[in-house]
Amino acid sequence: MTHTPTRSDFDQYMVPNYSPQKTIPVRGEGSRLWDQEGREYIDFAGGIAVNALGHCHPVLVNALKAQADKLWHLSNVYTNEPALELARTLVERTFADKVFLCSSGGEANEAALKLARRWAYNTHGEHKDKIISFRQSFHGRTFFTVSVGGQPKYAQGFGPVPGGIIHAEFNDLEAVRELMGDDTCAVMVEPMQGEGGILPADPEFLQGLRALCDEHDALLIFDEVQTGVGRSGTLFAYMQYGVTPDILSSAKSLGGGFPVGAMLTTDRIAPAMAIGTHGSTYGGNALASAVALAAVEHIDTPEVLEGVKRRHDLFREHLETINRKHGVFKEIRGMGLLIGAEMADEYEGRAKDILPLAIDEGLMALVAGPNVLRMAPSLVIPEADIAEGMARLERAIARLVASE
Ligand SMILES: *Cc1c(COP(=O)(O)O)cnc(C)c1O
């Protein structure tokens, strides 16, 4: 490489749908990253809840390297050992009986929605096509998933949206009860809204959705793309709610940084996805499956999951300490290592202003909407990195307060 890429190359060569920070990280290890200038950062962003074991975790690096020397890709004309092992592992550790593998969260949700529609069509007929989802929800960027998602701005300007989709207020069971009917095909919900602002569902809400779906023979779909694979403190968040979905989507942490997604379902529903109904060239890719298998086996252990709960408490304590000094947050909430701090009224809409200040101080963080500072670090982030990251965050927040 004779040319050293710079941030201005982004504006020159990439379509302008993103606006990345000025710094370009070139190397990562655990929860630390280094940029082109050798500046070091602590990573509370985790690639948006993807790098569940931090950067270059030896378990994942070894799984990738071992598989890289054996077999990368076959297509679905053949199956392969890593894909079969990943599917068996997910079935053995969850409610599911059957798995569809793909490469992203949006694809996992696309598969979930198509499966629900086809199942309803096969078992009840054409009229049963209504999908209920929630305002502020996020389910991906394919055209079906932005339409089901509850942020209209993501679907606007792309032509006619698919029909049969209704949005209700999150955590409002009565609103859903009024919308439910025998034409309801499925209810799709995030057990905790991620992009929408780190909003956990009330247990009674999810229990109520389960009961309504049973009553109307509709399918309950949990989008656990962001909450899944240890992020919430259990393998999947549904396990803490004690509410079992009919279909569940997973991605993000599932590959720990390698692109992979999965849709899980039961023997009652899976047959609707008969030969030829759906597919994906990369779905079940051997490299992706080998990495995901290693990630799930490593994360779904008492050591890692207990560690998530301990770190959750630490994050909360640090944020509360910062808030006692600076009074910038109204509420600190979340599950496991998906944590949101909602800005106080005086700082309404200013969450994103913290990000460049944090980068200046050597910390990567996230927002979830305009008003929530979001953190989704590695599930195994060392406690020393939490303390140092919080010291940097406090300096960034002190600068925000001083700039008032
Ligand atoms: C990120 C996310 C998606 C989309 O996943 P992609 O891999 O970007 O397609 C879907 N649902 C939720 C809840 C997410 O957080």
TrEMBL record:
Protein name: Acetylornithine aminotransferase
Superkingdom of origin organism: Bacteria
SUPFAM superfamilies: PLP-dependent transferases
Matching HAMAP family: ArgD_aminotrans_3
Any further remark recorded for this protein: May also have succinyldiaminopimelate aminotransferase activity, thus carrying out the corresponding step in lysine biosynthesis.
Chief location of this protein within or outside the cell: cytoplasm
Coiled coil feature spans: none
UniProt-listed InterPro entries: Ac/SucOrn_transaminase_bac, AcOrn/SuccOrn_fam, Aminotrans_3, Aminotrans_3_PPA_site, Class-III_PLP-dep_AT, PyrdxlP-dep_Trfase, PyrdxlP-dep_Trfase_major, PyrdxlP-dep_Trfase_small
Keyword presence, Ion transport: no
Binding-site positions, N(2)-acetyl-L-ornithine: R141, S280
Reactions catalysed: N(2)-acetyl-L-ornithine + 2-oxoglutarate = N-acetyl-L-glutamate 5-semialdehyde + L-glutamate
Names of the cofactor(s): pyridoxal 5'-phosphate
N6-(pyridoxal phosphate)lysine PTM sites in chain numbering: K252
GO molecular function per UniProt: transaminase activity
EC main group: transferase
Keywords noted in UniProt: Amino-acid biosynthesis, Aminotransferase, Arginine biosynthesis, Cytoplasm, Pyridoxal phosphate, Transferase
Subunit structure: Homodimer.
